[in-house]
Amino acid sequence: MNALATRLALTLATGSLVGAGFVLAKLLLNAGASQAAIAFVQLAGAAALMLLALGLGRRLPPRDGVHLRYFLASALIGIAAGPLLGNWVLARIPAGVFTVLVTLSPMFTALFNAALDRRWPPAQTLAGTGLGLAGVLLVLVPRAQAVDAEQGLALAVAVGVPMLLAAGNVYRSRRWPAGLAAPAASAGTLALQAALLAPLFLAGLRGAGGAALLPLWPLLAGLVAVTIASQLAGAYLQKRAGAAAYSQIGYVIALTGVAASALLFGEALGALFWPALALVFAGIVLTNRAPAAAPAATMPAAAAAR
User: Which of 1, 181, 206, 211 is 20 to 30 A from 198, comparing alpha carbons?
Assistant: First the structure.
């Protein structure tokens, strides 16, 4: 499989898996589990299994200052974007509407990169990002119009999710430590995320959210498995593509959310779904064909350690 085909496959896989994770989180929230409990079990379970596998292969994540700083920064951004802010918003607005805002992450990624590089992204990157955005808006704008006034605050706060996702895309691409393997990067980040959320989880065990977890173990197990798969696919994609190409997973997440909402929550799929899917795929191909910044795996050690 050539480099372009590999990036396309990883983009589709990562976006679909992350989208599936959001849907599973929505199901758990609807079943009465608390946001902190879902996030902790998701992250701690995924981290424990990945660290066990890496330990058996003697490939545990490095624990020097450079790597720990990278893991910590990635963990803080990831917690803020997903388990905390993302789940808070998902508890208050429909899953299909939430994906409207997730699709803004590629646009924010392009803007952040342009600001840091002090130059506009390549024309192909801008065109591909625009095609993907046009595709998802075909099916998501009508859903966004269904949000009532009481959900307006949650929708406004939710803009922070794509901004944080974009910040994470740019940070990981620019600061990936030289020689760090993708599984070790995922495991180290997940472990720190779980440690940071542990106090919130322990505090919430006294409430109904913690008590509601035991009957929901099949959904939780599925969420842990999806998290491991999405983290691995995303880490490999991050090493092989620039931040702009990586951010295209936001469009795949959006369409995955629409399809899953139609299947599980009875939301109409709509006739525009298939044209939207074609536009998103065309945008992903165009963006991955564009000249990109050096992938994380090829960044010099001096740049990664800054």
Answer: 181
pLDDT digits (tens, 9 = 90+) for 121-143: 777 777 877 887 787 677 666 66
In SS3 terms, the chain reads as CCHHHHHHHHHHHHHHHHHHHHHHHHHHHHCCCCHHHHHHHHHHHHHHHHHHHHHHCCCCCCCCHHHHHHHHHHHHHHHHHHHHHHHHHHCCCCHHHHHHHHCCHHHHHHHHHHHHHCCCCCHHHHHHHHHHHHHHHHHHHHHHCCCCHHHHHHHHHCCHHHHHHHHHHHHHHHHCCCCCCHHHHHHHHHHHHHHHHHHHHHHHCCCHHHHCCHHHHHHHHHHHHHHHHHHHHHHHHHHHCCHHHHCCHHHHHHHHHHHHHHHHCCCCCCCCHHHHHHHHHHHHHHHHHCCCCCCHHHCCHHHHCC
Structure tokens at 241: 């593509």
* CB burial of residue 197 (10 Å; 0-12, 13-18, 19+): buried
pLDDT tens digits along 1-42: 677 788 888 888 888 898 888 788 888 888 888 877 888 899
Tokens of 159: 């803009």
pTM for the whole thing? 0.72
CA–CA separation, 80 and 78 (whole Å): 5
Half-sphere exposure of 59 (CA within 13 A, CB side): 13
pLDDT digits (tens, 9 = 90+) for 263-281: 776 666 667 777 877 777 7
